[in-house]
Amino acid sequence: MHRSAPRLSRILLCAAVPVMLVAAGCSSDSGDDAKEKSTGSTTSGSSSSEASASPTPTVEPAKFAGLPDPCKAISAKTVKKLVPSAKKAGGTVGKSSDDDARGSCSWNGLDDKGVKGSVYHWLDIGLVRYDSDASIGSGADRATADYTKSVTKAQAAEGAKKLETAPVSGIGDQATAVTYTVNKTSEDFTYAAIVVRTANVVVSVNYNGTGYAGAKAPSAADILAGAETAAKEVVAAVGGTGGGSASEKSASPSATTSSSPKTSSSKSSGDESDSPKTSSSKSAAPDSGADSDTDSDSDSGATAKATPKATKKS
């Protein structure tokens, strides 16, 4: 009896050892599985996060961040040559709530030649600038679209006769001339409209003239040459604004992702839905042929609707 008790204790002890080893083994395996699951979960989450991140779209910065004073974009010498006896030598500026987005200026005058009659001239220029925006496109692309629309608009001048369209070299990145005549008050007005794109800016020049009371009307060649001269000076003035890239200006919208390369509710040459900067201005390039000191609030590149009040001389 005394010998059996120690022997029973040894048997029970030996049986307990494998159970402990098995428990320890299970415990160790559970820990490894948990680590593997935790690592897998972290890796999966990281991959998912990386997959959800997308690169930020970028566009080419706008080249010009501002516009020149439209009434000073053409030299006084050129104004005097193109519009003799201009009623306002300094021009009549168009309305704009943002001078960096758009601007316009016009000159008109009746050059009295005494018994030889009178010669009337009208000149107006318009400028529209587009900024770059990732959600809309680059300023240059937007200006290109407006340039195309402006050329089409010039070709659709009401009452136009002998209409011709031709590319113009040596002015900006793109340039087109549209020439035609319009008969008003029994006189033939000769017109030349030149539309130019220089980077992210669209320039429109409209020049026309006629003769009264026996005066010889300006020739189509002279009107076209005058319009080209004005266009070259305006484009040079745009390039001389000193604004550099729009991205260099801290306040320039091209450095942001707002929906406007300064989107405006104002009218522009082409389409109102894609106009520059946020403003409520009107381009106000006045209608050709208006014999008044106050310009009408029409689009740049508008055709004539009124004629000068000239008295025919015998």
List keywords for this structure.
30% helix, single chain, 314 residues, seven-stranded antiparallel β-sheet, 7 strands, alpha+beta, 4 helices, disordered C terminus
Characterise the protein shown here.
This protein is an alpha+beta fold. The chain is built from 4 helices and 7 strands. A 7-stranded antiparallel sheet has the order 1-2-3-7-6-5-4. The chain is elongated. It starts with a helix and ends in a 75-residue tail after the last helix. Residues 18-28, 243-275, 277-307 and 309-314 have low confidence and may be disordered.
What is the first-to-last residue Cα distance?
A: 160 Å
Number of beta-strand segments: 7
Tally of DSSP helical segments: 4
Largest sheet: 7 strands, antiparallel
Global shape: elongated
Strand line-up of the largest beta sheet: 1-2-3-7-6-5-4
Beta-strand content estimate = 15-25%
Mean pLDDT: 75
Output the radius of gyration.
37 Å
Helix content, binned percent: 25-40%
Helix/strand/pairing category: alpha+beta
The SSE order reads: HHEEEHEEEEH
- Uncertain runs are 18-28, 243-275, 277-307, 309-314
Question: Can I get a quick summary?
Answer:
The protein has 4 helices and 7 strands, in the order H-H-E-E-E-H-E-E-E-E-H. By secondary structure, it is an alpha+beta fold. Strand 2 and strand 3 form a beta hairpin.
